[in-house]
Amino acid sequence: MTIHTEQLDQLIDRIPQQLESRELAPITAELTELSSPDLVVVFEHLSVQHRAMAHRLLPKDRALEVFEALDPALQSDLLTALQAPEVAQLFAELDPDDRMWLLDEVPAALAARLLSGLPAEERALTAGLLGYPQDSVGRRMTPEMVSTHVGTTVAATMQRVRDRLADAETIYTIPVLDHGRKVVGVISLRDLLGATDDTLVEHLMQAPHTAEATLDAEHAARLCVDLRLLAMPIVDSENRLVGMLTIDDAARIVEIEENEDSARQGGVEPLNRPYLSTPVFTIVRSRVVWLLVLALGAALTVQVLSAFEATIEQVTALALFVPLLIGTGGNTGNQAATTVTRALALGDVRPRDLARVLGKEVRTGAMLGLLLGCMGFGITAVFFSPDIGVVIGLTLLAVCTVAASVGGVMPLAARAIKVDPAVFSNPFITTFVDATGLIIYFLIARTVLQL
């Protein structure tokens, strides 16, 4: 049953009190009636202890369903709070690729215990995924899939699908292999259902889109999403099938990466868990590093102002425009960085396109600066003097050009040196442009005003 947001909020407020007072019967009835998405929302708002207590009140099947839907960080917290038998059972019921998300969150000692408690077959499947690099698609693929072979009929392939219905994670896209397990094509379940039993699959298969298991998970996921594939075969270096990346896992990877980019562009590290379930210390840790970096950058800006103190004393009106100029420069750089970072993520540009991106951003920044500079000149000339208007107009032109150029180039430089482009985005660029913008401003003022 799905309930309204207001009713859900009331339930979330009531559950901790009922759990503390051991009113278990009424709360069990209410939790059991909720839909799984609503239960996930409830669990995200509970403390670790209350989450564990509520989880124990659910029927076994519902408990597993809700556990699978939780963020890996919350799954880790829940495993820590539950008793050993419950932990082993929940972990064993997960699909191998879902186990990898969880193993990346839990402490190493707990991960070893979880793996040792798995049945031999499941432990072998999970250990195979652990052998791939940390951020590779090999750790996000599922080894539980259905495949068929060249020369196999539709009837035989459909029987293979039926035999694997209970344990295969995806059956809608089926890789077609040659005798060396190399992927030579894919066939959809729709095409199988629409063909006669004696048709050979090689007559129905399409050219495959594959990704190597060591490829970066984000790159493979975006390829899967952009091509609108229900599942993509994952292969080894010799094009042999090792797993499948399903569309739900691909979308999950893309969402996580976009959340990380968004957080870092705002000057914080990603929380990787719901806000209300995040400890205060974790939030502080995610913000303090960037605050220190920005404080150092602000100190650099102060040094620039100090160096041009004599210039400001001669024409005090110059100080009035400092916030306008550094704010405009920072915003221009941030816009360019956000655009290029997004283009990098989508594969629209690559580090080798640096010269083309720089040329485009120089022109873009110059056009923006010309528009803003003309406006700034007109307004400043009326309220102050034509000379001040010329200084402001030229500064806006120069600052916008420099800011757009730096903002466009830095994400590409970051990718070239294997650093997250989002790290070089808004906070860093704002600090850089503040200092350089002030230097440009006062040098233009000295020249035009002959100070």
Automatic annotation (TrEMBL):
The subcellular localization recorded is: Cell membrane; Membrane
The main location class comes to membrane
State a single Pfam family of this protein: CBS
GO MF, any single term: metal ion binding
Family, similarity comment = Belongs to the SLC41A transporter family.
Q: What is the protein's known function?
A: Acts as a magnesium transporter.
Q: What is the protein named?
A: Magnesium transporter MgtE
UniProt organism field: Leucobacter insecticola
